[in-house]
Each structure stands twice: as structure tokens, then as C-alpha cells.
Write a structure and sequence with these properties.
The structure holds two protein chains of two kinds.
Chain A: H1 3-14, E1 18-21, H2 28-39, E2 44-47, H3 51-65, E3 69-73, H4 77-91, E4 96-102, H5 118-122, E5 128-131, H6 138-150, E6 157-162, H7 163-167, H8 193-205, E7 209-213, H9 215-220, H10 223-233, E8 237-239, E9 254-257, H11 264-272, E10 275-279, E11 298-303, H12 306-310, E12 318-321, H13 324-338, H14 345-362, H15 372-382, E13 388-391, H16 395-403, E14 412-413, H17 424-434, E15 440-445, H18 446-452, H19 456-461, E16 467-472, H20 477-486, H21 502-508, E17 512-515, H22 519-532, E18 536-541, H23 566-569
Parallel strand pairs in A: 1-2, 1-3, 3-4, 4-6, 5-6, 7-8, 7-10, 8-9, 10-11, 11-12, 13-14, 13-15, 15-16, 16-18, 17-18
Chain B: E1 5-12, H1 17-28, E2 33-40, E3 46-53, H2 59-67, E4 72-89, E5 103-118, E6 121-126, H3 130-138
Antiparallel strand pairs in B: 1-3, 1-4, 2-3, 4-5, 5-6
Helix pairs in contact in B: 1-2
Classes of the chains: A alpha/beta, B alpha+beta.
Chain lengths: 570, 139
């Protein structure tokens, strides 16, 4: 058996059903072997139009399914084009496996045609990277790669395969049944019982406790446990951007996303709380822009990665290292054992007050153009509960973060840590392949969409019916907003012009295109796109000067939150 | 150099990127490396690498990050340590040569406390027996 066959069989043994990528000189033999498996229906091979999209699609697949997504590229430019997508997956702890072709072993390091040192390039944006030097090692490292990618804090793994290994004959083939990685034991799953008891005691005695959930809750599948805890103790919940995917937003005690562009009631409740249970969140500088916002609180952190607890610049009262689901179950048991204090009626009353006050502030309509919040409310009314939403990056992403109601766990996918524009469409393609029974909608901005819109034909040609709703303000809106608010209106290099026709663009690629002028138009277009069940682009015009609020001044803390701008209310 | 912190890394070598990843962990967190030496310990590819690094507010984070890196078995931070400098004249076996221009220098750690970092967690300190320190001192 040759190396390429070993690779394909190893991937299939791991349960791989789809590979996103582009063939080229250095992964040609890999594709040649895939030919037969694809023809037999054992594996689906999706040709993207740029490798960045392959990595994002694998990422979207992983986040929608909970199983690693696989992408491939040839050596040099192909592999280098994966880099942004790999970094995006790393920052958001998503298990992506990238298989890169490499020049032959004898050519490496000699400025060979299409050579790039992909190990050197990706070493610090992956959980693990390995350049293989023997075809015999392929099964072992595929097995290891899946284990590394999915265990502990998930993350991307790159396997770099020199071209001569694809064709190398291997005798005495053996496929390992378990991983074997020296120097990697995974993190522990269960926290120490004494610490769990201490955490329970803090939560029972707190007057204004809060639960902050992050992406770890999604990966651990701990949504139910978070809701049980919240119900048991009467504790409101806030989330990080990615943590939105963990909590159904119609849960009455969910206050929304916390942070730099967070919901005002979430930020306010966080500031006023006296104890915070942080579950599966690393507390990035977007979630917690300043440590002074948390310093006076009793903080309990639950995280699979102990580093996230150890590295905090503030005192963590109790660090519970372990899997969120297991730790929260232990915590619930400890709470039951200790006896739960009554419902915190004053705190809940205050939180409801905050929610009502700020909702009145958000949901205003001056009649000048379509309002992002109403666009999202309209979409929510039309789309099924289990609709998976992806986003690009920019103002539209912040509006979605603020106003899109996630109703089922694992149905919100966005580039959080890396903030990668162009993420939305390819991630939607990956998500739709992972969960074909769900409607998948890419809520995108015009600037962000255009960065990877060349992959629209992938959705069309491969019959992947994703709907892209474009918040079209003809400007790089978030940058423009920052220039307006914090750079004295000196707007530069943000206008995208008015000539791009998104309907024609969609139609040119064979997708359905819609240009809507009203909320009713939007509802009709979405219904039609769902009914037709084909790739579609719906362009929604948004006024150029619409702002994403609340925001913070550069370097500010949550206490300095800006909820209104004078020109908007004068 | 006495202002630095002494670190020992135990990990498994696959290729030279193993050494790069150790060094880059400090580089990414703006920590300078004063000197480094290492060696292969066994046929399984276990290596030990000693580094004297800059005392820096990011050091703890670097050690935590390093300790959870795939392939790294553990990281040790030598607290309360001293370094005995051994200077050899190159190409002259075992000759201590203070005035030798082309010299090879080894720094032998003499320590009383070690913190161990493993899989992102800090483990209890290891305090060696005085006799052990004494023997190392003589080395």
C-alpha cells in the first residue's frame, strides 16, 4: 500500500466523511487515491476556490458537528493560504486537521518550486504540527492528530506530507487503535472535590452571583448543566461572543453577550455582581477589556485548560480544572448536598430592570433605513429554531452578537479571537455539510463577504444551500465607526463604493440573488430561498452611519461603556 | 546574568522544531534568553534543555504555556539558585583555563527550590537534600 492510500484509509477509520481543499502538485497523489473513495461515496471531496475557505469550511464543519473538520492544500502557496483559517481555528479552539502537501524530502530547504516551511509557519498557530519523514508513520500520526485536536482544549493540527511519501510503498501496515504521543497526556477532567465544595459555598453565600459562559460550554456539551445551575441558584447568565452558542436566548435569565461590544445589561450586571462563575471562557481582552472590572469579585473559574486559570491578572478564588460538564455536575451535586439558599429576588429584580431599561434603548426605529436589530428580529421570526448562523467580522457581527437570538446550542458560529473577515460564507458551507438537516444562514457584512465571496460557486456547484444575508452599508463599518468616534471623524480607506451589485454577483455564480428594501421583502426573500433550497444571497441595505453600540473607548473598561452617541439622539 | 531565571525543559524530540517551539514560547512573550544548552537523554527522544532567561512579568505564563505544549513532559523553574561557572579551554580536555581566549563555558546550577509545571499546572516545590547540593557544588 502506498502512503496516499494509508492517509485516506486512516482518515476514513477516524470517521472523516468530507475533505475541503484544492489539489496541486504536492498533494496530487492524495487526490488520486481519493478519486476512488469519492466515487464510491465513502468520502466527499469539496473543491473550494481559495485554500483559506478550505480551513474555514473545516472549522465551520467542526463547530457545527463537534467532530474535527479536515482540509488539504498543496505545498507553498496552497498551504500558506490555509494559514489565516488555521489561526482562526486555533484562537477559537476549534479542531481542524490540515493535511498539507510538501516538496519531496530531498528538495526541502532549497527554495524549491512551491516550497514553504509550513512547520515553521504554523508552529505557533496550531496545537500541534508535524512534518512526516516516513510513510509508515501516517496512520500513527493521523490517529494522534485527531486525539490532539479534540482532547483537552481543542485546536488545529497540521500534518505536512512530503510528496515522495505519498507514493512510497509500505509493507507491514498497521493502523493503531489508540493514540500514542510522548509528552501529551491531556488535561484532567474532574476537579478536586474540596474545591468544588468551596465553589458551591461561595455561590450559595453570594448576594449577586453571575454565570459567565464561553465556548468551553459548547465543546463540553454543558448547556443543560449551566441552565440547571442557574435555575437552582437563581443566577443570571451572560456569555462571551462564542458562548452565545451555549445558551438558548429565550431563557429568561440570559442577559446576552458581555464585553467590548457587549449588551449593556450584561456589562452592567457583571459590574454589579459580587461573585462570578466563569465556565469555559478564557476571559480575552474582548470579553474583559480591563481586569479592574473583576478585581473586587469572588471569581470561580471552570476550565479544561489550567493555564487559563493560572494566567489571570486578578485573584481567582477557586480554580476548577476539568471538563465543564463533569465539573458542573459535581458542583450541582455539592450544592444540593450543602442546601441551596432561596431565590435571590432583589438581584433578579435588578437584572430584569437593567434588561428592560436597555431594551427600550436598543429597539428604536427613526424610520431612516433598515435597522440592524429589526432585520435580525425579522430573520428570527422567519427562520427555524435550529437554524445555524455564521457571521463574518465587523459591525454586522456585533449586531448579530447583540440582537440575534440563538435558540439551540451549537447554532452560532463566528470568528471570535482572531476576528477573521471572510469567515462567514466558507464556515456556513462547512456547517451545512455537517448538519444538512438545518437551515444555515451566513449573516455577513459587505466588506467581509467580499473577502471570500469567490467561494459562492462552491455552494452552487456542490449543491450546498446556504443563505447569505449581507448587511450592506458600503463601508468597512466598524473601522469607520472607530474613525468617527475616536479618530475625530477622519474617515479614510473605508468606503467600498456603490457599483458592486450583489444580486448580479450572486446570479453570475448561479446563486439566487435578492435585493430587499423592507422587512417584509426580507422575510419573503428568506422564505423563497429556503423553499428553493439553493445557495442564495440577500442584500439588505443598511445606512452608512449606523453604529454598533454599546462600545468602549480604546483601552477602556466596562464602566466606560458608551451606549449612545450624541449625533444619534440630537 | 544573575538577574535571570533558570528553566529546565524535559520533552520529546520529533525534529528540530521541538527546540524552536521551546525558544519561541519565550520569544512570543518578549522574554530574552541569555544562554541555552541541551542534550538527548535517551533513545526515546527525551531531551533536557536548560535556559537562563530574563526575569520578566510574562515568565509564569511562558512556563505554563510551555508545559502544556504537545511533546513537553514538564518544565522546571529553579528558585533560589546559583550558577557555578566552569570554563574549559576548547580542544584541551578537562582543562580549566581562566585565561583561555577560546573557551567553552558551562553553568552548573546549584539550587534549593524547584517549581514544576506540568500540563498547564504548577506542582509542589521540590527541595533537594543538602548533600546533593554539596555534590553539585563540587562538580
Amino acid at each position: 500500500m502506498i502512503g496516499a492510500e494509508l492517509m485516506v484509509q486512516s482518515l476514513i477509520k477516524e470517521g472523516v466523511k468530507v475533505i475541503f481543499g484544492i489539489p496541486g502538485l504536492s498533494n496530487m497523489k492524495f487526490y488520486d487515491v481519493l478519486y476512488d473513495y469519492a466515487k464510491n461515496g465513502d468520502i466527499r471531496v469539496i473543491l473550494v476556490r481559495h485554500e483559506q475557505a478550505a480551513a474555514h469550511a473545516a472549522d465551520g464543519y467542526a463547530r457545527a458537528s463537534g467532530f474535527p473538520g479536515v482540509c488539504t492544500a498543496t505545498s507553498g502557496p496552497g498551504a500558506l493560504n490555509l494559514v489565516t483559517g488555521i489561526a482562526t481555528a486555533y484562537w477559537d479552539s476549534s479542531p481542524v486537521i490540515a493535511i498539507t502537501g510538501q516538496v519531496p524530502l530531498s528538495s526541502m530547504g532549497k527554495l524549491s518550486f512551491q516550497e514553504a516551511d509550513i512547520v515553521g509557519v504554523t508552529q505557533h498557530i496550531t496545537k500541534f504540527v508535524i512534518r512526516l519523514s516516513r510513510a509508515e508513520d501516517i496512520p500513527k500520526w493521523v490517529k494522534n492528530a485527531f486525539y490532539i485536536a479534540l482532547s483537552g482544549r481543542p485546536g488545529p493540527v497540521v500534518i505536512d506530507v512530503p510528496r515522495d511519501l505519498w507514493t512510497k510503498n509500505v509493507d507491514n501496515i498497521s493502523f493503531p487503535t489508540s493514540p500514542n504521543i510522548k509528552g501529551y497526556n491531556g488535561f484532567r477532567l474532574r476537579a478536586e472535590p474540596e474545591l468544588v465544595k468551596k465553589a458551591a459555598s461561595i455561590l450559595i453565600n453570594a448576594e449577586k452571583p453571575l454565570i459567565l459562559v464561553g465556548a468551553g460550554v459548547v465543546w463540553s456539551g454543558a448547556s443543560e448543566e449551566v441552565l440547571t445551575l442557574s435555575n437552582l441558584l437563581g443566577v443570571p447568565i451572560v456569555s462571551t461572543l462564542l458562548g452565545k452558542a451555549a445558551i438558548p436566548h429565550d431563557y429568561p435569565l440570559y442577559l446576552g453577550m458581555l464585553g467590548y461590544y457587549g449588551r449593556a445589561e450584561a456589562n452592567k450586571a457583571f459590574i454589579e455582581s459580587d461573585a462570578v462563575l466563569v465556565v469555559g471562557a478564557r476571559l480575552s481582552d474582548r470579553t474583559l477589556p480591563s481586569p479592574k472590572d473583576i478585581e473586587s469579585k469572588k471569581v470561580i473559574m471552570v476550565n479544561i485548560d489550567p493555564t487559563d486559570i493560572e494566567k489571570q491578572p486578578f485573584k481567582v478564588e477557586v480554580g476548577l480544572v476539568g471538563d465543564a460538564k463533569i465539573v458542573l455536575r459535581d458542583l450541582i451535586n455539592a450544592l444540593m448536598h450543602l442546601g441551596v439558599k432561596g431565590y435571590r429576588s432583589e438581584w433578579i429584580k435588578r437584572v430584569v430592570e437593567l434588561k428592560e431599561y436597555y431594551e427600550a434603548l436598543y429597539y428604536r426605529d427613526d424610520g431612516k433605513g433598515l435597522k440592524p436589530w429589526r432585520v435580525l428580529k425579522t430573520l428570527r421570526e422567519v427562520l427555524p429554531r435550529d437554524t445555524i448562523v455564521t457571521t463574518g467580522v465587523g459591525q454586522h457581527q456585533m449586531w448579530v452578537a447583540l440582537f440575534w437570538d440563538v435558540l439551540k446550542p451549537r447554532t452560532f458560529i463566528s470568528s471570535g479571537g482572531m476576528g477573521t473577515m471572510g469567515f462567514g460564507l466558507p464556515a456556513a458551507i462547512g456547517a451545512k455539510i455537517a448538519r444538512p438537516e438545518s437551515t444555515v444562514v451566513n449573516l455577513d457584512g459587505d466588506g467581509s463577504f467580499l473577502m471570500t465571496a469567490n467561494n459562492l460557486p462552491v455552494a452552487v456547484e456542490e449543491n450546498i444551500p446556504v443563505i447569505s444575508v449581507i448587511f450592506d452599508n458600503r463601508v468597512l463599518g466598524l473601522v469607520r465607526q472607530v474613525q468617527e468616534l475616536f479618530f475625530n471623524n477622519r474617515e479614510i480607506a473605508v468606503d467600498l463604493g456603490y457599483k458592486t451589485d450583489f444580486v448580479k454577483l450572486a446570479e453570475a455564480f448561479g446563486a439566487l440573488g435578492f435585493d430587499v428594501e423592507s422587512y417584509e421583502d426580507l422575510a419573503t426573500a428568506v422564505r423563497k430561498a429556503m423553499k428553493e433550497n439553493v445557495a442564495a444571497v440577500i442584500r439588505v441595505p443598511i445606512p452608512r452611519d449606523e453604529l454598533a453600540l454599546p462600545t468602549l473607548p480604546p483601552g477602556g473598561s466596562l464602566r466606560e461603556m458608551i451606549t449612545r452617541v450624541a449625533r444619534k439622539t440630537s | 546574568m544573575s538577574q535571570g531565571k533558570l528553566v529546565k525543559v524535559l520533552g520529546y524530540y520529533i525534529d528540530a522544531s521541538f527546540i524552536e517551539s521551546v525558544i519561541a514560547t519565550f520569544r512570543k512573550l518578549l522574554i530574552d534568553i541569555y544562554w541555552i544548552y541541551g542534550r538527548k537523554l535517551n533513545d526515546e527522544g527525551l531531551y533536557e534543555i536548560y535556559l537562563l532567561v530574563n526575569k520578566h512579568p510574562n515568565l509564569k505564563l511562558a512556563l505554563l504555556d510551555l508545559s502544556k505544549t504537545v511533546g513537553i513532559e514538564e518544565v522546571k523553574l529553579f528558585e533560589e539558585f546559583g550558577l557555578r561557572e566552569l570554563r574549559f579551554c576548547s580542544n584541551t580536555c578537562n582543562t580549566v583555563a581562566d585565561e583561555c581566549k577560546d573557551s567553552f563555558v558551562l553553568h552548573v546550577p546549584i539550587y534549593s527550590r524547584i517549581l514544576t509545571y506540568k500540563q498547564g499546572e504548577v506542582y509542589g516545590e521540590d527541595i533537594p537534600r543538602p548533600g546533593c547540593i554539596s555534590r553539585r557544588n563540587e562538580g
